[in-house]
Amino acid sequence: MNLDSPKVTVNKPAQYIFDALSDVQNFEKLMPDNIAKFEVTGPEAFIFALKGMPEIKLKIKDRQAPNKLVLGAASDKLPFTLTGDINALSDDSTEVQLHFEGEFNAMMAMMIKGPITKFIETLVGNMHKL
């Protein structure tokens, strides 16, 4: 299952956005209002839970400064990645898009597609808070 967020423009340099996303603590600022838990578990990992959903642990899997940051599930039970594509439009304007990629059975994919789509749209929509 592949899902893409809309592209958003943030009035910050690409390196600034990359550095902010590389600090996992900043993901708390991007989370939706219905967050039930957010806990940094290490320099490159955090756990979060939305109300009514199970906890998910994410960790940084790859960095390609200043254009790409890949987060992945820390558990192999639900393998997925969340990739942030960061493209400089000018010295102080950056386009950001999130890509979710995971392998789920058809039933699971049907259940989570809506919530995941809304989640990544919220994350990218809150990029201006960084």
Walkthrough of the structure:
- GO terms for molecular function: glycosyltransferase activity.
- It comes from Flavobacterium subsaxonicum WB 4.1-42 = DSM 21790.
- This is Orotate phosphoribosyltransferase.
- InterPro entries: START-like_dom_sf (IPR023393).
- The protein is of the alpha+beta class and 130 residues long.
- The chain has a single domain, classed as Alpha-D-Glucose-1,6-Bisphosphate, Chain A, domain 4.
- It is 25% helix and 43% strand.
- The protein contains three helices and eight strands.
- Strands 1, 2, 3, 4, 5, 6, 7 and 8 form an eight-stranded antiparallel beta sheet that branches.
- The two termini are 28 Å apart.
- The model has no long low-confidence stretch (mean pLDDT 95).
Question: What is the gist of this entry?
Answer:
This protein is of the alpha+beta class and 130 residues long. 25% of the residues lie in helices and 43% in strands.
Give the tags:
130 residues, alpha+beta, Alpha-D-Glucose-1,6-Bisphosphate, Chain A, domain 4, eight-stranded antiparallel sheet, 8 strands
> In CATH, what is the homologous superfamily?
START domain
The helix count comes to 3
Number of domains: 1
The CATH architecture classification is 2-Layer Sandwich
List low-pLDDT spans: none
Tell me the fraction of residues in β-strands, as a range: 35-45%
Keywords: Glycosyltransferase, Transferase
GO molecular function: glycosyltransferase activity
InterPro entries: START-like_dom_sf
Organism: Flavobacterium subsaxonicum WB 4.1-42 = DSM 21790
